[in-house]
Write a structure and sequence with these properties.
With 904 residues, the chain is an alpha+beta fold. Among the domains are: 239-337, Immunoglobulins (Immunoglobulin-like); 377-594 and 667-701, TIM Barrel; 706-805, Sandwich (Immunoglobulin-like), CATH 2.60.40.10; 813-881, Immunoglobulin-like (Sandwich). The chain has a six-stranded antiparallel sheet with strand order 3-2-4-10-7-8. A six-stranded parallel sheet has the order 29-28-27-26-25-32. Strands 43-45-41-40-47 form a five-stranded mixed sheet, covered by helices on one side. A hairpin with a 4-residue loop joins strand 33 (706-712) and strand 34 (717-724). Helix 5 runs parallel beside helix 6 and helix 9 packs across helix 10 (502-527). The chain is globular. The chain binds beta-D-mannopyranose. Residues 217-219, 444, 482-483, 555, 580, 672, 683 line the site of beta-D-mannopyranose. Pathway: Glycan metabolism; N-glycan degradation. Residues 1-36 form the signal peptide.
């Protein structure tokens, strides 16, 4: 049966009453707001009367209940007007929503204390996008940027009862289309709409400051949504209020930290005196520094600087390098006592350097150095977590970010085609020690940087978001955009425009340079508290060449994209920092069940294609190209899913280990992509429901501090390297064994070695003949291992032929599930070589401690299984797949797991 997609919207509402006590208020203030209470209101929405869409959708001009924060798609879904936008092939039928104007209305009362205060302000943390706001019948503000915070003073405009706030959202397509269509030559957009709602030759997305992925991307649907997508606050005060609190680290060593606490204080119409106090609490909650000062405040914004010192400061470190200690800085003006006069930030003490060392041969490195320690960045790119961002809960973020850390990642790149993530996101990355590379929100194509008004809008957006987020120690880079420079220089965007209109092309490029070379760099320098700026990914900060393996960061898509080279091509691409590379895979069947009925589940079916966004649904052909080259032709959708995951995991592992083996020349490896925006095919390692694809289990091994890189290229040479990202040298044994797939070792070598810290150590380059010693390559496997105290701590297998030619027999795995006190154990025994074991307990909710691994002939492994279900139910649900079984499967039924081994 088709499962509904869970709806998270209602859990987002924040409750004002929880902010009373200072400590609890501190937690609220951590949400990035200096001082404000969320507006308590009854919200409704309707199609704006008179809108042309009314003809096709009569009756929608009647008010219906709405949720704020939210989106019009979610409100229409909750009202029963539309079906679930993630289920079936719903997209084509919902594009009218993005062409309509929507009106939201909030009715609210105001308490006496608020009314009695001299000043009041309504603050909108997110209006998506072209919005006209009115209060009690009078215009209040006009907004044109979903990424900005919009504020309006409402002094004297509130009443005790029956206030009415209205927000009209104009269709971004209809708003911008006339201006875009009037351009004699267009600038490059991203993904044209296949649905006819927007002309393919006049895309508006790059002219709107709205999440780019809403217009459709190659991993997600096109839903040009609208709405109040972040909370609305009502703030009130008398004399003055704190509008921002920043903590600058002026000096940091083991003995002391010198901090500059920067308070923004807004003062009313007359000059006044005030007392300002700051306390710093250490990670255990002990007060370690305090300061109180009398200041003179002038009408308008005042910056108050307070110097503080902390002795023996505790650093914030990325995971794997030390603790994630954080300090709490509390500020009060006039003794505090209400939200407007207090502010709290939780921050960490660390230094960040983007090290750009030049080589003798003209190359230039790209390495993050945190607290003086060069960190090899291991991780993935993050895309939005939903098409409708207000659905994303803190629990959801924690689930996927915890999974990133569990897979031994230490860095995530927040890609520029979405939105600036919530405070929750960064609070969790701070806590987990995940470094964040933060793009500004430009996902590709080009934008009207030649328009000073557009640039000013972006600068305001950048200032809002840097100020909101700059206390987070996890943020270590602000990057101008995703792929705009390389698109202009390498994909023909620049050349085509130059051919058509050289003068306009020059203006467009100058606008680009002004925006990303000058304006955003300046805002980051002014506001970013020392975090480095990088103009584009990939790039070398406006160097002549944008995507250069020898300089700066690199996106590499010759595997999967363009020429669709085999995964071994990864071994011949050695950049300074690989910020994107990827292979797709389908999510597991239970995730497919959430959007497709069983009778819709064919590889080439309409619903399956609707959830495969690469090249207008052609992604499955690309997947088959990779699967068939290495493994063979899948017999069913279930086989296709499994083989796509095996292919993705093995390919990305090869690349990631190569990057790590190239340390220190290469200093980072971020694959595309961590997560999903909806249930569908994509490059992610976590699916929409948080299930780990095979890749995520592999990542936990290939990103582990200590790992084995045995990398065999098509020329039959295996480079054997040992990786140690730890800060200490490590003495261990390496061992190489070569054996028949049915068992029987015919070569073995073992030696003790000391691995240097934070380094890749070369062991040997081995040609096939050295390893095979005359044995049949199709019947052989080599195991490269690292042992400590006799235990294998890391292993990588090398095969000498593609899997489809390897003598992998079926029925080589025996599985037994036994009860073990409160939990269960799964015993697996391999008679011969077993590749790509996939353990699946169906919908029982059982969790197995490892998955997606290989077993050597004669090997036994026991895995812990956490489950609430009974033993017989688990046994009935258990399916274990292997590559050998799948490649031998004759079954064509889409739901036969095809490969259940002998289970007891
Ligand atoms: C990269 C990204 C995204 C895209 C991905 C997969 O170039 O920057 O724009 O989703 O490739 O094609």
């Amino acid at each position: 049966m088709r499962q509904g997609i869970p709806y998270f919207g209602s859990m987002q509402i924040r409750v004002a009453g929880h902010c009373r006590a200072l400590l609890l208020y501190a937690l609220c203030a951590l949400a990035g707001t200096a001082a404000a209470a969320p507006l308590q209101a009854q919200w409704s929405f309707r199609l704006l009367p008179g809108d042309p869409q009314l003809q096709a959708h009569p009756g929608l001009d009647a008010w219906r209940p709405a949720r704020v924060p939210g989106s019009v798609h979610d409100d229409l879904y909750a009202a029963g007007v539309i079906g679930d936008p993630y289920v079936g092939a719903a997209e084509a039928g919902l594009q009218w929503i993005g062409l309509a104007a929507w009106e939201y209305r909030a009715r609210f009362d105001v308490d006496a204390a608020t009314l009695a205060r001299r000043h009041a302000e309504l603050r909108f943390d997110g209006l998506d996008t072209f919005a006209e706001v009115s209060l009690n019948g009078r215009p209040l503000l006009e907004a044109d940027n979903a990424h900005r915070t919009w504020r309006a003073r409402v002094d004297g405009r509130l009443r005790a009862q029956g206030n009415e706030l209205r927000v009209v959202f104009r269709s971004p397509i209809r708003t911008l289309l006339p201006q875009v269509q009037a351009m004699p030559h267009k600038i490059a957009g991203n993904y044209p709409s296949p649905y006819g709602d927007e002309p393919k030759d006049a895309m508006v997305g790059n002219f709107a400051r709205k999440p780019a992925y809403h217009f459709g991307w190659d991993w997600g649907p096109r839903y040009v949504t609208a709405g109040v997508w972040r909370p609305v606050h009502l703030d009130s005060w008398d004399q003055h209020r704190i509008t921002d609190l920043a903590v600058r680290t002026d000096a940091l060593d083991d003995q002391r930290a010198r901090l500059g606490v920067l308070l923004q204080v807004e003062q009313g119409a007359t000059v006044g005196r005030a007392s300002v106090a700051v306390d710093v609490l250490d990670p255990d909650g002990h007060r370690v520094a305090s300061l109180e000062r009398e200041v003179t405040l002038h009408p308008g914004q005042n910056t108050v600087q307070l110097p503080l010192e902390i002795a023996q400061p505790r650093r914030w470190w990325p995971v794997g390098y030390g603790a994630q200690d954080r300090y709490t800085v509390q500020a009060r003006i006039d003794g505090g006592g209400d939200p407007a006069r207090e502010a709290v930030r939780r921050t960490g003490l660390r230094t960040v350097e983007l090290r750009r060392e030049a080589d003798a041969d003209g190359g230039q490195g790209f390495a993050f150095v945190i607290n003086g320690v060069p960190v090899f960045a291991k991780g993935a790119n993050v895309i939005p977590f939903e098409s409708f961002p207000a659905r994303v809960t803190r629990e959801r973020l924690r689930r996927d970010l915890q999974a990133a850390r569990d897979a031994n990642m230490n860095m995530l790149r927040n890609w520029g085609g979405g939105y600036y993530e919530s405070d929750d996101f960064f609070d969790i990355t701070d806590e987990l020690g995940l470094l964040v590379w933060q793009d500004f929100m430009f996902g590709g194509g080009m934008q009207p940087g030649y328009d000073p008004g557009f640039r000013a809008n972006v600068v305001a957006e950048a200032r809002d978001n840097i100020r909101r987020l700059r206390h987070h120690p996890s943020i270590v880079l602000w990057c101008g955009n995703n792929e705009e420079e390389t698109a202009w220089k390498d994909w023909g965007h620049g050349r085509q425009l130059k051919d058509a209109d050289p003068a306009f092309a020059a203006r467009v490029w100058q606008g680009y340079v002004d925006l990303f070379g000058t304006d955003l760099r300046a805002v980051v320098a002014e506001e970013g508290l020392g975090v480095p700026y990088w103009s584009s990914s990939p790039g070398n900060d406006l160097d002549a060449k944008a995507n250069d393996s020898r300089r700066g960061d690199k996106h590499y898509w010759d595997v999967w994209g363009g020429p669709a080279l085999p995964a071994t091509a990864y071994l011949r691409e050695t950049p300074r920092f690989m910020s994107e590379y990827g292979l797709q895979a389908w999510p597991q069947l239970s995730t497919v069940d959430a959007f497709a009925r069983r009778d819709e589940q064919q590889i080439d079916g309409a619903v399956i294609r609707a959830h495969q966004k690469f090249m207008a649904g052609q992604g499955n052909e690309r997947l088959l190209h990779y699967i068939e080259r290495e493994y063979g032709t899948p017999a069913s959708l279930a086989d296709f899913i499994y083989l796509s995951q095996v292919m993705q995991a093995e390919g990305i592992e090869l690349a990631a280990l190569h990057h790590r083996a190239s340390r220190p020349y290469t200093m980072g490896s971020l694959y595309w992509q961590l997560n999903d925006v909806w249930p569908g095919a994509s490059w992610s390692s976590l699916d929409y429901f948080g299930h780990w694809k095979a890749l995520h289990y592999h990542a936990r091994r290939f990103f582990a501090d200590v790992a084995v890189a045995a990398l065999r290229d098509d020329d039959g040479v295996t480079r054997f390297r040992l990786l140690n990202d730890g800060r200490q040298p490590l003495t261990a044994q390496w061992r190489v064994r070569v054996m028949d797939v049915a068992g029987g070792e015919f070569a073995r070598q073992q030696e003790t070695i000391t691995l240097a810290p934070m380094a890749a150590t070369a062991v040997a380059d081995l040609v096939d003949a050295d390893l095979l010693k005359g044995h049949d390559p199709a019947r052989s496997v080599a195991a490269f291992e690292l042992l400590r105290g006799g235990e294998v701590v890391a292993r990588r297998l090398v095969h000498f032929v593609p899997a489809r030619e390897q003598a992998l027999a079926a029925g080589q795995l025996r599985a037994e599930l036994v009860a073990n006190g409160g939990d269960y154990r799964l015993r697996l025994h391999a008679d011969g070589l077993v590749r790509a074991v996939w353990v699946d307990f169906g919908d029982t909710g059982a969790r197995v401690e490892d998955n997606a691994f290989d077993l050597l002939p004669g090997e036994t492994r026991e895995l812990r299984v956490d489950a609430d279900a009974r033993l017989d139910a688990l046994r009935a649900a258990l399916r274990v797949r292997t590559l050998g079984d799948t490649l031998h499967a004759a079954s064509t039924s889409p739901h036969d797991p095809a490969s259940t081994p002998r289970t007891r």
